User: Fold this.
Amino acid sequence: MDYRFDQNASYQKLEKLASKATQYTLKSRFADDKDRLGKFSFEWEDIYIDFSKQVIDEDVWKHLLELAEEAGVTEGIEAMFSGEKINATENRAVLHTALRDRKDAQRFFEGQNVMPDVHEVLESMENFTNAVHQGSFLGATGEEIKDVVSIGIGGSDLGPVMVSEALKALPSKVKLHYVSNVDGFHLENTLRQLEVKNTLFIIVSKTFTTQETMTNAEYAKKWLMESLGEDAVGQHFTAVSTNISAAQDFGIAEKNVFGFWDWVGGRYSLWGAVGLSIMMEYGAPVFRELLAGARAMDEHFRNTPNNKNLPVVLALLGIWNSNFMQHRSLAILPYAQGLHRFPAFLQQADMESNGKQCNKKGERIKYQTGPVIWGEAGTNGQHAFYQLIHQGTQIIPADFIGFVAPMSKYGDHHQKLMANFIAQSEALMNGLDEAAVMKDLEAQGMSKEECERLAPFKIFEGNRPSTSILFNELNPRSLGKLIAMYEHKIFVQGWIWDVFSFDQWGVELGKKLAKRILPQIQGESSFEHDSSTTELIRRCK
Ligand code: F6P
Assistant:
């Protein structure tokens, strides 16, 4: 099929609809259609989605659903789940969903069912975790492990950190620390809080070659050896990698290396061995609940018609906002302190996946692909950047993510949090017009002149699109669903945009140049650069 996103029949129709979309305010659309909410909201299990505050109508929605059909989204989903090598530039399948599938499921890669291997790793992670928790795995001096330091970066860090933070309300079995940055202070500041004899390191790196991770891992090893000697390394270091031999060369015993496979992308990897730190912190049953939630979302995604399919709906709304309404970013606004790292996690998941310039034929594309993803936990974001979302000159679509049940037993905190969650999307949609502003100012006893002077600054134009996603509560299972929902949303968008969502060539050039510049900063090489780069090197030398 010679598929071209921007030459689809529905694409042309949506372009026309977009040019008229702002003729009516969202407020008037609600007034004119009493069933608007019913048309643009639904529930699945413990998740309620309301996208009635998006700037769409039935016609737009119909053509967005057609767009999904023209792009063959349903076939794409099957291609991914059935282990086709849809990551063609790396010649890899995309099977992270197998990491959370049942032991008796049949998931094939090159004709082999991968489920026995997946569960073997899961069980060995579980055995190791239990041994640490129960004190049968001890440090080299016979002391129990109290602190675990996970060293990794990007997909080998962001997912586990995000989950670790999200589940902080649960009791933890050991204290987790995450080190990612090659700024030595990150490691130094962590190590100075630790007792070497009680510390276990998990080196998480798919390739086991990443500069940041290997630098931190080597220093951590040096720190340990200074106190406990070389023989202690095997008792204090574990690894998670697809590169088992490199991990062994580092000094880690084979039985303490937890493997995964090329068909798991780094940013989609928290569900397997990369999640060892999550299991260490909260125990295997919690980790299994996380997997069960993601698996439920996988089944929903695979078996639900597009118009009631959460990831597909989110993907289509994003495409409407980005390609047709020309809004270039998406704010992720979770109203749960535990999810404060969720926007950062999604930045990698989404932007590394869909920040692409070529279609699958290798042609430079002219339409917009992945949006800028950013955000912050509500209400902190409200006191930082919401000014721009409400009154700035660019329109920022937003996903508001909330939870009905409180995470804390403190007073009326949660009611206040949720009042803010609801108020923000209402304000963005309705705004505040001049008449209302004038009335408000007059009620404060100001002169007509003063009211007229101040009014322009207090007007909210409204009509700013948002989706509200409301879960019953934040727990391991619902968290698994939330993460998998966004993973699949990213997949659908990439499929419709016709880009390869599972490679990441764009991160390579900078890494390569940094390797060339390093010896120059160390004074061992004199490679020619432009004058700007040369001067920066000279100053850092
Ligand atoms: O940032 C680029 C990247 O390749 C990511 O895709 C990956 O998650 C990260 O580096 C870490 O890679 P590794 O797990 O191989 O250390």
Summary: The mean pLDDT is 97. The first strand starts at residue 41 and ends at 44.
